[in-house]
Amino acid sequence: MTKNVTITVNGVERRASVEPRLLLVHFLRENAGLTGTHVGCETSLCGACTVLLDGRAVKSCTVLAVQADGRNITTVEGLASGDQLHAIQEGFWEEHGLQCGFCTPGMIMCSHDLLEHHPNPSDSEIREGINGNLCRCTGYQHIVAAVKNAAQKMSRPTAARAGAR
Amino acid sequence: MATPAKSPTPQKKTNGKAGNGTWVGKRMKRKEDPRMIRGISHYTDDLKLAGMVHCAFTRSPHAHAEIKAIRTDAAKALPGVIAVYTSADTTGLGPVPCAIQMPDLKVPRHPVLAEGRVRYVGEPVAVVVAEDLYIARDAAELVEVDYEPLPAVTDLEKALGKDSPLVHEQLKSNQAFTHQLKNGDVEAGFKKADRIVKQRMMNQRLAPIAMEPRAVVAEYLPGENRLTVWSSTQIPHLLKTQISLLVGLPETAVRVIAPEVGGGFGSKLNVYGEEGVVPWLAMKTGRPVKWNEGRRENFMATIHGRDALNDVELALKKDGTILGMRARVLADMGAYHQLLTPLIPQLTALMHAGCYKIPAIQIDIIGVFTNKMSTDAYRGAGRPEATFNVERIMELGAREMGMDPAEFRRKNFPLPKEFPYTTVTGLTYDSAKYQESLAKALKLSGYDSLRRRQKEGWKRGKYYGVGVSTYVEICAIGPSAATPAGGWESGTVRIEPTGKVTVLTGASPHGQGEETTFAQLVADQLGIDPQDVNVVHGDTLAVPYGIGTFGSRATAVGGTAIYMATQKLKSKLATLAAHLLGSKPADISIGRGQLTAKSGKRIPFGEVVLAAYTARNIPVGFEPGLEATHFFEPSNFTFPFGCHVCSVEVDIETGEIKIEKYVAVDDCGNVINPLLVAGQIQGGIAQGLGQALWEEVVYNDDGQLVTGTLMDYAIPKAHLLPEFTLDHTVTPSPVNPMGVKGVGEAGTIASTPCIVNAVCDALSPFGVRHIEMPLKPERVWNAIRTAKAIPAIAASAEAPRKREAVRRRA
Amino acid sequence: MIPANFNYESPSTLNEALNLLSAHDDAKVLAGGHSLLPAMKLRLAQPAMLVDLGRISGLSYIREAADKIAIGAMTTHAEVAGSKDLLDSSPLLALAAAQIGDTQVRNRGTLGGSLAQAHPAADYPAAVLALDAEIVAHSHSGERVIPATKFFNGMFSTALRNDEIITEVRVPKTRGEGVTYKKFHHPASGYAVVGVAVRVKKSGNKIESAAVGITGVSEIAYRASAMESKLRGKPIGAFADAAEHAADGIDVIGDVYASAEYRRHLVTVITRRALEAAAK
């Protein structure tokens, strides 16, 4: 049994006929060819597969592609506009918020959700906010710094940010 | 290959810097990050080859069982299944290698697919190849295996008992090897001791949990006789050699590529059966094959770390001087040896002197087979176990002597002037100032005020503890004499005709950031911008043979190889520039994008480079081109060190531990990029705290893996960790010209005993001596309620309840 | 990692969903999927059909209904946790929701899905028990209002019939009462090793009444009734003795992280602390 789905990924509408059991993460990686979204566990714990579903962070290994039919997905590949990195990406780069990089896309997408709701988070709000994303390399300290760095950039007007570059 | 006109800087005792300071020592953003933060880097599982198929393994649900029959018909009948194989098909393939040789080491055959018997839960029994991943997984479930379960053994001491089930019947016992390290008059030391401190400590089994599970992709082109294997590995070159032996192809036909590797921590410093099976499948089916283990297989079938039972004794004189140390270690090998399994406990023995003057030592190790996954190198690999034993017994020693634990340590440190310092275990520590890092950490943590607050807290029924851990680790592994597959590293530097520089390194970074640090290093040496330096690694066809990244060796050994290769090129550039400027090579200096003669005449860097390639105006005998390779063999290990101090509060009602402050002062010699060093230390501390507080692979008595998912096995999460305060001292290593030591494992080694010391310190009023790791709340609560002493609590509003809580603890 | 195959339907009305459930005995309802899909991926659950409620409009809301607040079954944990209505007039459920899983789980997981799953260490059960909430289920026979205290039958087992779907949960307004949810988290799963939901009415310096729901401690979340009666009339702060009875008569579970003995102790401590916090 297959189902037809239309899922908008990073602004591009993608149609496919999929098995109901196809996980959204595999739809993104295999059908859409976007391999920035990683798979790190089977139990919805590691967060490496985090994407935005209609703007909210979800673990795409625990969403069926059929559930995302007609919805909007943003993956890490959809954050930057051309050469201009998103402020969160810049934050991770500047503060050394990544080492092996495997958890990073999920961490960035989760931070996106966090900053949407807490534009100026405290350290502990950041740590609570990303506790569904596991990182084995950094000990999280530089990730916390990265999110704060991004929060500061995002609270500045866009023009000022662009001008400062 | 270019021949240098002059020999490179000799490898002498220089406390020199790693560069001229333009780039080395700078907090430079990483060059590898842009692709990773955009999600456009390629890990093994991201690869897609034309015609690629997927494979999945059927694994044993039993810890120990006879395989009576395997039926693959149902699996083969599933549409989309290409083939199903068992050990009956793979007779020429394997076995899985172990690189260690020891006099009495038993190395049982380790088949790539189980042959007649399974010996741990997760042992592969069959492999399915199918058109896609989903079908492969479905088919793997359809392989029917008749097992006759056998008794299993998972306990180290029981495994050595007479009536124990045997993991390998033909060996007649579960003893894998014995190893003794003895030096000095141990008996005399213990005989004349005023105090002997003893403690049994279990260093529990851990799962490395690199965030990227293992993955392998293989493609075989019969016409070219070329097998290409992409694997998430830390050792592409060693793996290439081993794959050629596993599958029976000449080594020249095999190319291994480690693409982006999502963390390793030692777990990918190995050669796994799957790394033989997947290439074999590609050869057999004529299709590119992909395998991705997923987290559940990662828990079952990727090596575990630690798992050793330690009985440690310390002999002390009245004044706190150490007279001797003894330890008996039972080390769990699991069911089979992986690449380095029996080596790991030997590192424990070597590092058992810690950073102390110990006149006599005896370490006895027994390696033990059990029905579990193999243990092998996991971040620290044998050294965390040693440091834990030493730092815990030192803590208990201080308590026994009534001395401050920091003071007790200081008393037993060798002095800076005693370096190079030869330990009783036979190592020569290169350089250290243990006193300095201890003093700095104590000051930074406010040690004295922590102690005051602790005493005052006890009176109020608040249980604060202060933990100290001074450590030394063995890095830059290592001299080849001490390393199974060679301890050197290769480095090639090629200045391209346009002046851009390609660096090829045999090291295989997987998160450490050497694309950046090596670029900094080369940029300084050649006076160019690091953005013009591209570091290539992980492809055995592109890079000269190398060893890989593990044992905190990439910078100290691999970086030095590059540094040396760069010296060869500098000398060549100087020769050519002198020719072009009418000067002498010795009078040429390199920097700021140009070469300058003493006379003041100068020539742009790019012009000299181009001249080396156009080769129309070169000195007689000058070899065209600008490429140099150096295979660097270190003369010794390096020995980074430091001191960590933490303070905790223990909730005596629930047993919960709150880390209030964590201070780390580390010394890894000269620093190339402080940002990256901080990252290594922080990540290392987190992993060490993981062992101390949360992590534990649990097999039950039947050998079932109880903690087989991230729902059960707790690795540190962001909200569970405190912010770490970092500082450092700098004691350059004389072992390499850059004076660097290595930093990959320091945090993990130091932090584990630091926390356990702090918690036991907090509970000292109860008489709690030791709590086994992980310090789960229940264990802490149990230690309190079964403790002998009842602490006094001063009068306060809260006091009655606190007294009640203390009373009720039983 | 990969679920076994299944048929999938995504009805657009509740009626269609109920039809599917009646027609297919082996169908399972998919709400947010955050309990069911992980079990399916590990192949611990292999339903033949999933009936996805995600396309049915009108199941996600939080609104006043007389003296109660009604919450649609498909309302996510994040929406419950952030609901101003709930935080103003009946915060306990929101406090529990805020401690479920993590950001991503709260964005997808639903109130109805969690209750129907009846995980022994889930957070909501403690809260709905303490609140004496009503769980509204629909089937072709109509609407059935199940009191929370009659809803949980056992581990992963509820009073819900196979042909019923939870549509709404109603909680009372608790203005003027003290409520709190205290949780001792499992460090890996984030589930409750012990979770205690407390609702206390004070009268002067004394407890007039207390309702305590406890999760994580046994195969089924429960009301600590024996303890509640001991609390009546007790002065604020003198909770230690009553809390000792938090697991009286309960078959306490143990696992590799926390033994039954430890849990039995822990629940008394967490309960006392929860009572203290609620009565503040």
Explain what you see.
The complex is a heterotrimer of chains A (165), B (810) and C (280). With 165 residues, chain A is of the alpha+beta class. Chain A folds into 2 domains: 3-78, Beta-grasp domain (Ubiquitin-like (UB roll)); 87-164, DNA polymerase, domain 1. Chain A is built from 6 helices and 5 strands, in the order E-E-H-E-E-E-H-H-H-H-H. A 5-stranded mixed sheet of chain A has the order 2-1-5-3-4, with helices on both faces. In chain A, helix 2 crosses helix 5 (141-155). The longest helix of chain A has 15 residues, at 141-155. By secondary structure, chain B is an alpha+beta fold. Chain B contains 20 helices and 28 strands. Chain B has a 7-stranded mixed sheet, with helices on both faces. Chain B has a 5-stranded mixed sheet with strand order 7-15-14-13-8. A 4-stranded mixed sheet of chain B has the order 18-26-27-28, sandwiched between helices. Chain C has 3 domains: 7-51, Uridine Diphospho-n-acetylenolpyruvylglucosamine Reductase, domain 2, CATH 3.30.43.10; 62-172, 2-Layer Sandwich (Uridine Diphospho-n-acetylenolpyruvylglucosamine Reductase, domain 3), CATH 3.30.465; 178-279, CO dehydrogenase flavoprotein, C-terminal domain (Enolase-like, domain 1). Helix content of chain C is 31%, strand content 28%. Chain C contains 11 helices and 14 strands. In chain C, helix 5 (91-97) packs antiparallel against helix 8 (124-131). Classes of the chains: A alpha+beta (165), B alpha+beta (810), C alpha+beta (280). Chains A and B meet through helix 2, helix 3, helix 4 and helix 5 of A and helix 1, helix 8 and helix 17 of B.
